[in-house]
Amino acid sequence: RTDVPELMAAADVLLHPAYNENTGAVLLEAMAVGLPVLTTDVCGYARYVIDAGAGRVLQSPFNQQSLDTALDAMLRTEPSTWHRNGTAYTQRPLFYSMPDKAVDIIENNASSGNHRGRETGNFIYLSERLHLGQAEATLDGVLSLSGETFRQAPGRRTLRFVRQGTGYFLKKHNGVGWREIAKNLVSLKLPVLGAQNEWHALHVLRRKGVKTPAPLGFGTRGRNPARRKSFVIMEEIADSISLEQLFQQKGPSNDVSFKRNLISMLAGITRTLHLNGVNHRDFYLCHFLIDKRVAAGGPGQDPVNIILIDLHRAQIRRTTPMRWIVKDLGGLYYSAMDIDLSRNDLFRFIRTYCGQPLRTALEAPVDWGRVEKRALGLYQSDRAAMQ
Q1: Pairs from 178-187 (Cβ < 8 Å, separation ≥ 24)
Q2: How far apart, in whole angstroms, are the C-alpha atoms of residue 308 and residue 112?
Q3: Beta strands in the chain, from DSSP E residues, in sequence order
Q4: Distance (Å, whole) CA 215 – CA 199
Q5: Annotated catalytic residue 382
Q6: Cα 346 to Cα 342: distance, rounded to the nearest angstrom
Q7: Mean pLDDT across the stretch 13-33?
Q8: How many CB atoms within 10 Å of residue 207?
Q9: With the CA atoms of 87, 92, 96 and 100 taken in that order, what torsion angle do they form, in degrees rounded to the nearest 10?
Q10: Rounded to the nearest 5°, which phi and psi values hold at 120?
Q11: pLDDT value at residue 303
């Protein structure tokens, strides 16, 4: 519509309590015309409201009373300061120079011969948020970083390091070797050749509204798939607990409303993955994180932010093959078999995942018998290995 400027000029406050918003360009539009903003911190552009002093930003988890109080206070406050701050802040060339910046980057790369790095298979990207030193901000520097080792596997190591009080996770891939590649191919599995799987999956899922750790760095060296070195850096999800740990504590399972909320959200996340051609391949409760404070509080903590991690084996296609859908769903069900799930809990997941009435969802498109069979097979194998 063409009358948005007139509507904003007549408004007192732009109220945008987003549940999930990647950017929120409307926040900048409001600031540009001097309209005070009240929004939530899940908006990607909410930081500009804070930097400019052009309104209020509510912190997560969302609380209705906090929104009511903030809105009432803003409507009782003279808006002239917010008006001046917003209009002054948005006059910066930064907000109107995206095409020029893009052209500059393209021309600089073309003239400096940076394309030679692509020819040798070398590439690196590091966010300024990492605060790495000059010597660290190179492929060799990142691959040499030290920290607390969280996981070690053949050809892969995950470690945690800290810069300026913020924790980050670094996954370093050192090449799997031709033997591992051959073994995977013989088993009709695609081998994980480096960090690019996780880097791409993180971006795809964040664009689709699935919460994941923020991807802040990626690099790769070499064209030989068996010896290629690569890394991905993600921001740490601090003060979190996995759903596996949460349910092992038994407390939340006694809170029916909290458990139902988690089930519905898990089903929604799974649906988003599969509708967008993504399958996880390690789709277990241990790879879903929530805030410890929310987990302890249970009811009243709405919405619950569930964060999906460990995407290094994820696959991305135009559409997700049914056999991989069954494997993801079977893995998730297997990891939840020791939870006191009722029949209605399972039906709730199925109905939400399919986005259809239960009777229709049970008939198609997923063969839920195959899902259960796979889950039982994993469960029995796990128990046999423990004996």
Answers
A1: 178/226, 180/154, 180/155, 181/225, 181/226
A2: 39
A3: 14-16, 37-40, 55-58, 123-126, 148-153, 156-163, 166-173, 215-221, 229-235, 240-242, 278-279, 288-291, 307-308, 315-316
A4: 7
A5: no
A6: 7
A7: 91
A8: 10
A9: 170
A10: -95, 5
A11: 60
Count Cα neighbours of 362 within 13 Å in the Cβ-side half-sphere.
8
Taking residue 325's Cβ as centre, other Cβ atoms within 10 Å add up to 21
322-335 vs 256-275: helix axis angle to the nearest 10? Answer: 160
Alpha carbon distances (Å) from 103 to 100, 110, 114, 146 = 5, 11, 15, 37
Distance of alpha carbon 126 from alpha carbon 220, whole angstroms: 12
25: tokens are 């360009």
Max Cα–Cα distance, the chain, nearest Å: 72
What does the DSSP assignment read for 214-260?
A: PEEEEEEE-S-TTT-EEEEEEE--TTEEEHHHHHHT-TGGG-HHHHH
Gap between the Cα atoms of 312 and 192, Å rounded = 7
The residue with tokens 């800290």 is 162
Place of tokens 């997700």: 320
Instruction: Lay out the sheet containing 240-242: strands in order across.
Output: 240-242, 288-291, 307-308
Q: Is pLDDT above 60 for 255?
A: yes
Q: Which residue has the tokens 């410890």?
A: 292
**φ, ψ for residue 29, nearest 5 deg:** -60, -40
Distance CA 55, CA 57 (A): 7
pLDDT digits (tens, 9 = 90+) for 111-170: 655 444 555 568 889 998 898 888 888 989 999 998 999 888 878 899 999 999 999 999
pLDDT digits (tens, 9 = 90+) for 107-116: 777 665 544 4
Q: Could you say which of 41, 255, 282, 367 is catalytic? A: 282
d(CA 220, CA 119): 12
Angle at 244 between CA 241 and CA 246, to 5 degrees: 55
Q: Is residue 30's pLDDT more than 90?
A: yes
Residue ranges of alpha helices (H) inside 120-250 are 139-143, 177-186, 196-207, 243-248
Q: How far apart are CA 225 and CA 181, in angstroms?
A: 9
Q: What is the DSSP letter of 21?
A: B
User: How many degrees, rounded to 5, is the angle at CA 59 between CA 54 and CA 60?
Assistant: 145
